[in-house]
Amino acid sequence: MSAPLHECALLIVGHGSTENPDSSTPYYNHADEIRKRGIFSEVHCCFWKEEPSMREALYMIDAKEIYVVPDFISEGYFTTEVIPRELEMDGPITKVHGKTLYYTDPLGIHPAMSGIIGKRAQNVAPGVAPEETTVFIVGHGTALNAKSADSIKDQVKALEESAIPYASVQEAFMEEEPFIKDWHLNATTPNVVVVPFFISDGLHSYQDIPVMLGFEKDEGLAASQKDVFRNNPYHLQDKTLYYSSAIGTEPLLADVILDLVSDFQTEHLSA
Amino acid sequence: MTLSETLQSALDSGIRQIGQIIIETIEGSYVLHHIDDSETDRSALTPYSSPEDAREIGLYGPDGEFRFTKGQLDLKTGWLLTLPDIASLRRALDIFYPASLGLWSAYKNGTIRVQNLRDKLDRQTGMYRFAGTISDAGAQDLVQCLCGPGNNCVKKILWKLDDDTPLTDSEASRFDGIPGDADEDKAIPLVCQEACNFFVAQCRKRAKNEFENASA
Protein backbone atom coordinates (compact mmCIF):
# COMPACT_ATOMS: atom_id res chain seq x y z
CA MET A 1 0.00 0.00 0.00
CA SER A 2 1.55 3.30 -1.06
CA ALA A 3 1.26 6.55 0.87
CA PRO A 4 -0.97 9.37 -0.39
CA LEU A 5 0.87 11.78 -2.67
CA HIS A 6 0.91 14.56 -0.10
CA GLU A 7 3.17 12.33 2.01
CA CYS A 8 5.44 11.45 -0.94
CA ALA A 9 8.25 13.31 -2.66
CA LEU A 10 8.63 13.94 -6.36
CA LEU A 11 12.15 13.74 -7.74
CA ILE A 12 12.62 15.09 -11.26
CA VAL A 13 15.78 13.75 -12.90
CA GLY A 14 17.43 15.79 -15.62
CA HIS A 15 20.65 15.76 -17.59
CA GLY A 16 22.02 19.23 -16.79
CA SER A 17 25.19 20.76 -18.13
CA THR A 18 28.54 22.03 -16.92
CA GLU A 19 28.51 24.69 -19.64
CA ASN A 20 24.97 25.87 -20.34
CA PRO A 21 22.99 27.35 -17.43
CA ASP A 22 19.79 27.21 -19.49
CA SER A 23 20.03 23.43 -19.59
CA SER A 24 18.52 22.86 -16.14
CA THR A 25 15.96 25.69 -16.31
CA PRO A 26 13.04 23.56 -17.62
CA TYR A 27 13.48 21.01 -14.84
CA TYR A 28 13.38 23.70 -12.17
CA ASN A 29 10.38 25.31 -13.85
CA HIS A 30 8.51 22.00 -13.93
CA ALA A 31 9.38 21.45 -10.26
CA ASP A 32 8.33 24.99 -9.26
CA GLU A 33 4.99 24.62 -11.01
CA ILE A 34 4.24 21.27 -9.35
CA ARG A 35 5.47 22.50 -5.96
CA LYS A 36 3.04 25.44 -6.16
CA ARG A 37 0.15 23.02 -6.51
CA GLY A 38 0.93 21.42 -3.13
CA ILE A 39 0.40 17.86 -4.37
CA PHE A 40 3.59 16.34 -2.94
CA SER A 41 5.24 16.91 0.44
CA GLU A 42 8.47 17.78 -1.39
CA VAL A 43 9.51 18.40 -4.98
CA HIS A 44 13.18 18.23 -5.93
CA CYS A 45 15.40 18.01 -8.99
CA CYS A 46 18.63 16.12 -9.46
CA PHE A 47 21.02 15.84 -12.37
CA TRP A 48 23.68 13.87 -14.16
CA LYS A 49 25.91 16.88 -14.84
CA GLU A 50 24.89 19.32 -12.12
CA GLU A 51 24.16 19.29 -8.41
CA PRO A 52 22.53 17.69 -6.61
CA SER A 53 23.68 14.49 -8.26
CA MET A 54 21.41 11.48 -8.22
CA ARG A 55 23.53 9.95 -5.44
CA GLU A 56 23.14 13.11 -3.37
CA ALA A 57 19.43 13.55 -3.97
CA LEU A 58 18.08 11.07 -1.44
CA TYR A 59 19.87 12.94 1.35
CA MET A 60 17.70 16.00 0.76
CA ILE A 61 14.38 14.15 0.98
CA ASP A 62 12.42 13.49 4.18
CA ALA A 63 9.61 11.47 2.57
CA LYS A 64 9.82 7.69 2.70
CA GLU A 65 8.23 7.22 -0.71
CA ILE A 66 9.58 8.99 -3.78
CA TYR A 67 8.27 9.18 -7.33
CA VAL A 68 11.27 9.40 -9.64
CA VAL A 69 10.38 10.95 -13.01
CA PRO A 70 13.06 10.98 -15.71
CA ASP A 71 12.58 14.36 -17.41
CA PHE A 72 14.03 12.94 -20.62
CA ILE A 73 12.69 13.04 -24.13
CA SER A 74 12.95 9.32 -24.82
CA GLU A 75 13.83 5.96 -23.40
CA GLY A 76 17.46 5.15 -23.85
CA TYR A 77 20.86 4.91 -22.20
CA PHE A 78 20.09 7.39 -19.44
CA THR A 79 16.65 6.12 -18.51
CA THR A 80 17.46 2.43 -18.73
CA GLU A 81 21.03 2.40 -17.45
CA VAL A 82 22.41 5.56 -15.84
CA ILE A 83 19.45 6.65 -13.72
CA PRO A 84 18.67 3.15 -12.33
CA ARG A 85 22.36 2.64 -11.57
CA GLU A 86 22.85 6.00 -9.86
CA LEU A 87 19.67 5.76 -7.80
CA GLU A 88 20.29 2.05 -7.15
CA MET A 89 16.93 1.03 -8.62
CA ASP A 90 16.30 -2.50 -9.87
CA GLY A 91 12.81 -2.11 -11.30
CA PRO A 92 9.71 0.06 -11.21
CA ILE A 93 9.58 -0.22 -7.40
CA THR A 94 12.79 -0.31 -5.37
CA LYS A 95 13.35 -0.22 -1.63
CA VAL A 96 16.74 1.32 -0.95
CA HIS A 97 18.31 3.14 2.01
CA GLY A 98 15.03 3.21 3.90
CA LYS A 99 13.09 4.74 1.00
CA THR A 100 10.75 3.32 -1.61
CA LEU A 101 11.40 4.62 -5.11
CA TYR A 102 8.75 4.53 -7.82
CA TYR A 103 10.37 4.88 -11.24
CA THR A 104 8.03 6.22 -13.92
CA ASP A 105 8.35 6.31 -17.68
CA PRO A 106 10.28 9.20 -19.22
CA LEU A 107 8.40 12.37 -20.05
CA GLY A 108 8.88 12.31 -23.80
CA ILE A 109 7.08 9.04 -24.51
CA HIS A 110 3.82 10.01 -22.82
CA PRO A 111 0.87 10.18 -25.24
CA ALA A 112 -0.03 13.67 -23.97
CA MET A 113 3.16 15.02 -25.56
CA SER A 114 1.60 15.16 -29.03
CA GLY A 115 -1.15 17.47 -27.79
CA ILE A 116 1.48 19.74 -26.27
CA ILE A 117 3.47 19.76 -29.51
CA GLY A 118 0.27 20.68 -31.37
CA LYS A 119 -0.46 23.49 -28.95
CA ARG A 120 3.11 24.75 -29.18
CA ALA A 121 2.93 24.67 -32.99
CA GLN A 122 -0.27 26.73 -32.91
CA ASN A 123 1.13 29.21 -30.41
CA VAL A 124 4.33 29.80 -32.34
CA ALA A 125 2.39 30.44 -35.57
CA PRO A 126 -0.79 32.22 -34.44
CA GLY A 127 -3.48 32.61 -37.09
CA VAL A 128 -1.68 30.41 -39.59
CA ALA A 129 -3.96 27.89 -41.28
CA PRO A 130 -2.99 24.31 -40.32
CA GLU A 131 -4.18 23.13 -43.75
CA GLU A 132 -1.35 25.15 -45.29
CA THR A 133 1.28 24.19 -42.73
CA THR A 134 3.88 21.47 -42.34
CA VAL A 135 5.09 20.69 -38.83
CA PHE A 136 8.58 19.25 -38.34
CA ILE A 137 9.33 17.59 -35.01
CA VAL A 138 13.11 17.63 -34.81
CA GLY A 139 15.37 15.35 -32.83
CA HIS A 140 19.07 14.73 -32.67
CA GLY A 141 19.00 11.35 -34.33
CA THR A 142 21.82 8.93 -33.85
CA ALA A 143 22.41 5.28 -34.48
CA LEU A 144 23.37 4.98 -30.80
CA ASN A 145 19.84 5.57 -29.63
CA ALA A 146 17.17 4.31 -31.98
CA LYS A 147 14.54 4.80 -29.30
CA SER A 148 15.03 8.55 -29.50
CA ALA A 149 13.89 8.48 -33.13
CA ASP A 150 11.07 6.08 -32.28
CA SER A 151 9.80 8.52 -29.69
CA ILE A 152 9.60 11.28 -32.31
CA LYS A 153 7.94 9.01 -34.86
CA ASP A 154 5.28 8.16 -32.26
CA GLN A 155 4.61 11.85 -31.67
CA VAL A 156 4.42 12.52 -35.43
CA LYS A 157 1.82 9.80 -35.82
CA ALA A 158 -0.19 11.05 -32.85
CA LEU A 159 -0.17 14.65 -34.10
CA GLU A 160 -1.19 13.48 -37.58
CA GLU A 161 -4.17 11.74 -36.02
CA SER A 162 -5.08 14.70 -33.80
CA ALA A 163 -7.90 17.16 -34.41
CA ILE A 164 -5.56 19.80 -35.79
CA PRO A 165 -5.71 19.42 -39.59
CA TYR A 166 -2.05 20.04 -40.41
CA ALA A 167 -1.28 19.42 -44.06
CA SER A 168 1.73 17.38 -43.04
CA VAL A 169 3.55 16.32 -39.87
CA GLN A 170 7.08 14.98 -40.33
CA GLU A 171 9.99 13.80 -38.24
CA ALA A 172 13.39 15.30 -39.00
CA PHE A 173 16.82 14.86 -37.47
CA MET A 174 20.11 16.64 -37.16
CA GLU A 175 22.29 13.60 -37.78
CA GLU A 176 20.21 11.07 -39.68
CA GLU A 177 17.66 10.98 -42.47
CA PRO A 178 15.36 12.69 -43.01
CA PHE A 179 17.68 15.63 -42.31
CA ILE A 180 16.21 18.89 -41.00
CA LYS A 181 18.51 20.76 -43.39
CA ASP A 182 16.32 19.41 -46.20
CA TRP A 183 13.15 20.91 -44.69
CA HIS A 184 12.41 23.04 -47.78
CA LEU A 185 12.59 19.98 -50.02
CA ASN A 186 10.25 17.95 -47.82
CA ALA A 187 7.66 20.64 -47.11
CA THR A 188 5.20 21.40 -49.89
CA THR A 189 3.12 23.93 -47.95
CA PRO A 190 3.72 27.71 -47.80
CA ASN A 191 4.04 27.61 -44.00
CA VAL A 192 6.41 25.54 -41.90
CA VAL A 193 6.58 25.13 -38.12
CA VAL A 194 9.68 23.57 -36.56
CA VAL A 195 9.50 22.19 -33.01
CA PRO A 196 12.77 20.91 -31.49
CA PHE A 197 12.01 17.73 -29.51
CA PHE A 198 14.45 18.39 -26.69
CA ILE A 199 13.90 19.09 -23.00
CA SER A 200 16.22 22.08 -22.82
CA ASP A 201 17.25 24.91 -25.02
CA GLY A 202 20.94 24.79 -25.72
CA LEU A 203 23.30 24.79 -28.64
CA HIS A 204 21.09 22.40 -30.64
CA SER A 205 18.00 24.60 -30.47
CA TYR A 206 19.74 27.98 -30.26
CA GLN A 207 22.27 27.43 -32.95
CA ASP A 208 22.69 24.04 -34.64
CA ILE A 209 19.13 23.65 -35.93
CA PRO A 210 18.78 27.36 -36.92
CA VAL A 211 21.99 26.99 -38.93
CA MET A 212 20.57 23.88 -40.63
CA LEU A 213 17.32 25.72 -41.32
CA GLY A 214 19.31 28.57 -42.85
CA PHE A 215 18.44 31.60 -40.73
CA GLU A 216 21.50 31.62 -38.47
CA LYS A 217 25.18 31.75 -39.22
CA ASP A 218 27.50 29.30 -37.56
CA GLU A 219 29.09 31.99 -35.43
CA GLY A 220 29.17 30.58 -31.89
CA LEU A 221 27.52 33.25 -29.80
CA ALA A 222 26.88 32.26 -26.18
CA ALA A 223 23.60 30.39 -26.14
CA SER A 224 21.73 32.75 -23.82
CA GLN A 225 22.49 35.69 -26.06
CA LYS A 226 20.64 34.19 -28.97
CA ASP A 227 17.21 35.46 -29.79
CA VAL A 228 16.20 32.97 -32.42
CA PHE A 229 12.71 32.35 -31.07
CA ARG A 230 11.62 35.99 -31.03
CA ASN A 231 12.20 36.82 -34.66
CA ASN A 232 9.43 34.70 -36.15
CA PRO A 233 8.50 34.33 -38.88
CA TYR A 234 11.52 33.74 -41.09
CA HIS A 235 11.07 34.07 -44.84
CA LEU A 236 13.25 31.46 -46.46
CA GLN A 237 13.12 29.28 -49.56
CA ASP A 238 9.84 30.97 -50.64
CA LYS A 239 8.23 29.74 -47.43
CA THR A 240 7.28 31.26 -44.10
CA LEU A 241 9.03 29.43 -41.28
CA TYR A 242 8.10 29.60 -37.59
CA TYR A 243 10.65 28.29 -35.10
CA SER A 244 9.75 27.11 -31.60
CA SER A 245 11.95 26.77 -28.53
CA ALA A 246 12.59 23.25 -27.21
CA ILE A 247 9.38 21.43 -26.33
CA GLY A 248 10.69 20.81 -22.79
CA THR A 249 10.39 24.51 -22.02
CA GLU A 250 6.61 24.24 -22.31
CA PRO A 251 4.98 24.88 -18.90
CA LEU A 252 2.29 22.30 -19.68
CA LEU A 253 4.89 19.57 -19.23
CA ALA A 254 4.29 19.84 -15.49
CA ASP A 255 0.92 18.23 -16.20
CA VAL A 256 2.60 15.43 -18.14
CA ILE A 257 4.82 14.71 -15.14
CA LEU A 258 1.72 14.39 -13.00
CA ASP A 259 0.15 12.15 -15.65
CA LEU A 260 3.23 9.90 -15.48
CA VAL A 261 2.83 9.59 -11.71
CA SER A 262 -0.87 8.84 -12.10
CA ASP A 263 -0.18 6.24 -14.79
CA PHE A 264 2.45 4.64 -12.57
CA GLN A 265 -0.03 4.37 -9.71
CA THR A 266 -2.58 2.76 -11.99
CA GLU A 267 -0.10 0.27 -13.42
CA HIS A 268 1.93 -0.63 -10.35
CA LEU A 269 0.20 0.47 -7.17
CA SER A 270 -3.48 -0.26 -7.70
CA ALA A 271 -4.77 -2.82 -5.25
CA MET B 1 13.90 14.28 12.81
CA THR B 2 13.08 16.04 9.53
CA LEU B 3 15.71 18.11 7.77
CA SER B 4 13.86 21.30 8.71
CA GLU B 5 13.99 20.20 12.36
CA THR B 6 17.68 19.37 11.97
CA LEU B 7 18.27 22.84 10.55
CA GLN B 8 16.30 24.50 13.34
CA SER B 9 18.24 22.54 15.92
CA ALA B 10 21.52 23.58 14.29
CA LEU B 11 20.51 27.25 14.38
CA ASP B 12 19.41 26.90 18.01
CA SER B 13 22.83 25.49 18.84
CA GLY B 14 24.54 28.57 17.45
CA ILE B 15 25.33 27.55 13.87
CA ARG B 16 25.33 30.63 11.66
CA GLN B 17 27.14 29.69 8.45
CA ILE B 18 26.99 27.27 5.55
CA GLY B 19 29.41 27.62 2.67
CA GLN B 20 29.85 31.33 2.02
CA ILE B 21 26.49 32.23 3.56
CA ILE B 22 25.74 33.76 6.95
CA ILE B 23 22.29 33.01 8.40
CA GLU B 24 20.88 35.51 10.90
CA THR B 25 17.62 35.18 12.78
CA ILE B 26 15.96 38.57 13.05
CA GLU B 27 12.49 38.97 14.56
CA GLY B 28 11.42 35.49 13.52
CA SER B 29 12.71 35.81 9.95
CA TYR B 30 15.89 34.38 8.49
CA VAL B 31 18.23 36.85 6.83
CA LEU B 32 20.98 35.47 4.59
CA HIS B 33 23.95 37.26 3.11
CA HIS B 34 27.46 36.53 1.83
CA ILE B 35 30.17 36.15 4.50
CA ASP B 36 32.05 39.02 2.85
CA ASP B 37 29.01 41.30 3.26
CA SER B 38 28.93 41.05 7.05
CA GLU B 39 30.19 44.63 7.38
CA THR B 40 28.32 45.99 4.35
CA ASP B 41 25.52 48.50 4.92
CA ARG B 42 22.30 46.47 4.47
CA SER B 43 20.76 49.24 2.40
CA ALA B 44 23.52 48.75 -0.16
CA LEU B 45 22.58 45.07 -0.71
CA THR B 46 20.02 43.93 -3.30
CA PRO B 47 17.00 42.57 -1.42
CA TYR B 48 15.45 39.19 -2.25
CA SER B 49 12.55 37.46 -0.51
CA SER B 50 11.88 34.06 -2.09
CA PRO B 51 13.83 30.82 -1.62
CA GLU B 52 13.78 30.39 -5.40
CA ASP B 53 15.79 33.65 -5.68
CA ALA B 54 18.75 31.56 -4.50
CA ARG B 55 18.94 30.15 -8.01
CA GLU B 56 19.48 33.58 -9.56
CA ILE B 57 21.93 34.64 -6.87
CA GLY B 58 24.03 31.49 -7.19
CA LEU B 59 23.86 30.91 -10.94
CA TYR B 60 26.86 32.98 -12.02
CA GLY B 61 30.08 33.95 -10.27
CA PRO B 62 31.30 37.57 -10.13
CA ASP B 63 33.16 36.94 -13.40
CA GLY B 64 29.93 35.92 -15.16
CA GLU B 65 30.94 32.27 -15.32
CA PHE B 66 28.24 29.63 -14.80
CA ARG B 67 28.66 28.00 -11.36
CA PHE B 68 27.83 24.43 -12.36
CA THR B 69 29.15 23.08 -9.06
CA LYS B 70 27.70 24.91 -6.12
CA GLY B 71 30.62 24.19 -3.81
CA GLN B 72 32.58 26.77 -5.78
CA LEU B 73 34.21 29.51 -3.74
CA ASP B 74 32.81 32.24 -5.93
CA LEU B 75 29.30 32.95 -4.68
CA LYS B 76 28.77 36.57 -5.56
CA THR B 77 28.33 39.26 -2.93
CA GLY B 78 25.86 42.16 -2.78
CA TRP B 79 22.55 40.46 -1.92
CA LEU B 80 20.32 40.06 1.11
CA LEU B 81 17.77 37.24 1.18
CA THR B 82 15.02 37.44 3.81
CA LEU B 83 12.93 34.31 4.36
CA PRO B 84 9.84 33.96 6.54
CA ASP B 85 10.18 30.43 7.94
CA ILE B 86 12.40 27.41 8.41
CA ALA B 87 10.86 25.57 5.44
CA SER B 88 11.77 28.35 3.02
CA LEU B 89 15.23 28.62 4.59
CA ARG B 90 15.79 24.90 4.02
CA ARG B 91 14.55 25.29 0.44
CA ALA B 92 16.94 28.17 -0.24
CA LEU B 93 19.91 26.31 1.25
CA ASP B 94 19.11 23.29 -0.92
CA ILE B 95 19.38 25.59 -3.95
CA PHE B 96 22.53 27.41 -2.82
CA TYR B 97 24.22 24.18 -1.71
CA PRO B 98 22.20 21.25 -3.07
CA ALA B 99 21.67 18.41 -0.58
CA SER B 100 24.38 19.80 1.70
CA LEU B 101 22.14 20.03 4.74
CA GLY B 102 21.11 16.39 4.36
CA LEU B 103 24.65 15.24 3.62
CA TRP B 104 25.95 17.03 6.71
CA SER B 105 23.17 15.54 8.82
CA ALA B 106 24.04 12.05 7.57
CA TYR B 107 27.75 12.72 8.08
CA LYS B 108 27.09 13.88 11.63
CA ASN B 109 24.93 10.81 12.34
CA GLY B 110 27.36 8.40 10.77
CA THR B 111 24.86 7.29 8.12
CA ILE B 112 26.50 8.91 5.11
CA ARG B 113 27.41 6.49 2.32
CA VAL B 114 30.91 7.41 1.19
CA GLN B 115 32.12 5.92 -2.08
CA ASN B 116 35.82 5.83 -2.78
CA LEU B 117 37.07 7.01 -6.15
CA ARG B 118 37.92 3.56 -7.56
CA ASP B 119 34.42 2.29 -6.76
CA LYS B 120 32.91 5.42 -8.29
CA LEU B 121 34.95 5.02 -11.47
CA ASP B 122 34.22 1.28 -11.62
CA ARG B 123 30.49 1.91 -11.71
CA GLN B 124 30.77 4.17 -14.79
CA THR B 125 29.47 2.95 -18.12
CA GLY B 126 29.42 4.26 -21.67
CA MET B 127 31.98 6.91 -22.52
CA TYR B 128 33.03 7.29 -18.87
CA ARG B 129 34.01 3.64 -18.41
CA PHE B 130 37.53 4.50 -19.59
CA ALA B 131 37.94 6.91 -16.65
CA GLY B 132 38.64 3.86 -14.48
CA THR B 133 41.97 3.31 -16.20
CA ILE B 134 43.47 6.44 -14.65
CA SER B 135 46.61 5.73 -12.60
CA ASP B 136 46.69 6.32 -8.86
CA ALA B 137 49.26 9.06 -9.42
CA GLY B 138 47.04 10.69 -12.03
CA ALA B 139 44.01 10.58 -9.73
CA GLN B 140 45.98 12.00 -6.79
CA ASP B 141 47.25 14.79 -9.01
CA LEU B 142 43.72 15.59 -10.23
CA VAL B 143 42.52 15.99 -6.63
CA GLN B 144 45.21 18.61 -6.14
CA CYS B 145 44.39 20.27 -9.49
CA LEU B 146 40.58 20.34 -9.13
CA CYS B 147 39.57 20.10 -5.47
CA GLY B 148 39.99 22.32 -2.43
CA PRO B 149 39.74 26.06 -1.95
CA GLY B 150 42.84 26.66 -4.05
CA ASN B 151 40.86 25.32 -6.98
CA ASN B 152 37.61 27.07 -6.05
CA CYS B 153 35.87 24.08 -4.40
CA VAL B 154 35.23 24.24 -0.68
CA LYS B 155 33.87 20.80 0.12
CA LYS B 156 35.37 18.52 2.74
CA ILE B 157 36.45 15.38 0.87
CA LEU B 158 35.36 12.21 2.67
CA TRP B 159 36.50 9.67 0.07
CA LYS B 160 39.80 7.97 -0.56
CA LEU B 161 41.17 6.42 -3.73
CA ASP B 162 40.31 3.01 -2.28
CA ASP B 163 40.11 1.52 1.19
CA ASP B 164 43.89 1.21 1.42
CA THR B 165 44.86 4.42 -0.37
CA PRO B 166 44.10 7.74 1.29
CA LEU B 167 44.41 10.97 -0.61
CA THR B 168 47.89 12.44 -0.63
CA ASP B 169 48.15 15.14 2.00
CA SER B 170 47.33 18.53 0.49
CA GLU B 171 45.23 21.64 1.08
CA ALA B 172 42.41 19.86 -0.78
CA SER B 173 42.58 16.69 1.31
CA ARG B 174 42.77 18.65 4.57
CA PHE B 175 40.08 21.24 3.93
CA ASP B 176 37.26 21.15 6.49
CA GLY B 177 34.41 22.32 4.26
CA ILE B 178 34.04 25.68 6.02
CA PRO B 179 35.19 28.77 4.11
CA GLY B 180 36.44 31.69 6.17
CA ASP B 181 37.36 31.74 9.82
CA ALA B 182 34.24 30.30 11.45
CA ASP B 183 34.69 27.75 14.23
CA GLU B 184 33.60 24.20 13.43
CA ASP B 185 30.70 24.44 15.90
CA LYS B 186 29.40 27.60 14.23
CA ALA B 187 29.14 26.35 10.64
CA ILE B 188 27.68 23.52 8.60
CA PRO B 189 30.55 22.06 6.54
CA LEU B 190 29.98 21.20 2.89
CA VAL B 191 30.86 17.53 2.53
CA CYS B 192 31.78 15.55 -0.59
CA GLN B 193 30.72 11.92 -0.15
CA GLU B 194 31.97 10.85 -3.57
CA ALA B 195 33.80 12.47 -6.46
CA CYS B 196 31.49 14.66 -8.54
CA ASN B 197 30.72 13.80 -12.14
CA PHE B 198 32.89 16.70 -13.31
CA PHE B 199 35.81 15.01 -11.54
CA VAL B 200 34.93 11.74 -13.30
CA ALA B 201 34.92 13.52 -16.67
CA GLN B 202 38.37 14.94 -15.89
CA CYS B 203 39.57 11.44 -14.89
CA ARG B 204 38.50 10.24 -18.32
CA LYS B 205 40.51 12.99 -20.03
CA ARG B 206 43.56 12.29 -17.88
CA ALA B 207 43.26 8.54 -18.48
CA LYS B 208 43.15 9.15 -22.24
CA ASN B 209 46.27 11.31 -22.01
CA GLU B 210 48.03 8.63 -19.99
CA PHE B 211 47.06 6.00 -22.57
CA GLU B 212 48.20 8.14 -25.50
CA ASN B 213 51.49 9.03 -23.80
CA ALA B 214 52.13 5.37 -23.01
CA SER B 215 51.39 4.43 -26.65
CA ALA B 216 53.60 7.17 -28.12
SS elements, strand count of chain A: 10
Structural class of chain B: alpha/beta
The spatial strand order of the largest sheet of chain A comes to: 2-1-3-5-4
What's the structural domain tally of chain B? 2
Shape of chain B: elongated
Number of helices of chain A: 8
N-end to C-end Cα span of chain B: 57 Å
Query: What are the low-pLDDT stretches of chain B, counting only 5+ consecutive residues below 50?
Result: none
Largest sheet of chain A: 5 strands, mixed
Q: Strand pairing plus helix content of chain A: what structural class? A: alpha/beta
Unreliable spans of chain A: none
- Please state the second-level CATH architecture of the largest domain in chain A: 3-Layer(aba) Sandwich
Rounded to an integer in angstroms, the radius of gyration calculated over CA atoms of chain B is 19 Å
Helices and strands, with pairings:
The complex is a heterodimer of chains A (271) and B (216).
Chain A: E1 9-14, H1 25-36, E2 42-47, H2 54-57, E3 65-70, H3 77-86, E4 93-96, E5 99-103, H4 112-124, E6 133-139, H5 146-160, E7 168-173, H6 183-186, E8 191-196, H7 203-213, E9 234-236, E10 239-243, H8 253-269
Parallel strand pairs in A: 1-2, 1-3, 3-5, 6-7, 6-8, 8-10
Antiparallel strand pairs in A: 4-5, 9-10
Chain B: H1 3-12, E1 17-18, E2 21-26, E3 29-34, E4 46-48, H2 53-59, E5 79-83, H3 86-96, H4 100-109, H5 117-122, H6 136-146, E6 156-157, H7 171-174, E7 187-188, E8 191-192, H8 197-215
Parallel strand pairs in B: 1-7, 4-5, 6-8
Antiparallel strand pairs in B: 1-2, 2-3, 3-5
